[in-house]
Amino acid sequence: MTGLPCKPLLTSWNPLTQLVRFRTRTPDIRKPIPPHRLRAVALKLTKPVYDTSLNPLLPIKPVRPKIIKAQENPFERILANEFYQILESSKVVAIFHRNPMDQKEIYKMKLLLHKSKMKYLWYSNTVAKLAMSGTYYEPLLPLYQSHTATVVSEENSVAKLLKLEKKMPGVILMGALVEGRLMSVTDLKRYAALPPLEVLQGQLVGILGAPAQRISYNLTHHQTELSSALSRFISDQTQPPQDEEKKE
Predict the structure, then answer these.
(1) What kind and span of H or E run contains 16?
(2) Structural domains in the chain (count)
(3) For residue range 82-104, what is the model confidence (pLDDT) as tens digits?
(4) Does residue 43 fall inside a structural domain?
(5) Mean of the pLDDT values across residues 157-169?
(6) What is the average per-residue pLDDT within 170-193?
(7) Angle at Cα 10 formed by Cα 9 and Cα 12, nearest 5°?
(8) 151, 94 contact by CB (below 8 A)
(9) How far is the C-alpha of 182 from the C-alpha of 140, rounded, in Å?
(10) What is the span of the domain harbouring residue 182?
């Protein structure tokens, strides 16, 4: 018994499988094989039927969707009137692109503008369109396309506005309306570099008055020279008798 080999009594048998393809012909796309009878009946029943009585030469009229006009919100009209009155009383109207900010950053920006006598305004684009359409401020509407904010000032403080922009990273200046003139950022920088208005007015008055002063000088120069020459001649004629009297 000890010399017999130890083999299991039951062994597992795995059959060998092999895939065999009997059809070697590739499918013919140009002349396909007719389907089965039941499949052919199903395809015949589900085939769509089109109306061929219509004349294909006639132009097909495009279907225009009905445009439903949105009703105007009375509250937005009130806000638009308020916004328009603020614009009328302001000398500088600056439009900024507003980046995502929290309320804490917005409060700091409002406080910074308030110290410079400026005001931060935020109205929706719909309110801005109602306020500016058909008015003097309509050229500003192309700037109100995305998230925008408006800064107004009753004083002509363009230089202060450009300095404050560097301290407000949450907004980007796009343009401004200064005393009725629309300016880009480059124009605002040039405008801020100019001297005050009183100095420019004085320079203009001096430039305009220079030709008149020159003409007046040229007209009176010969008369002044003649009168001074006559006065010197008279003084020379009257001087010798006085000297002779002193000598006697």
Answers:
(1) none
(2) 1
(3) 999 999 999 999 999 999 888 89
(4) no
(5) 89
(6) 89
(7) 145
(8) yes
(9) 8
(10) 74-192
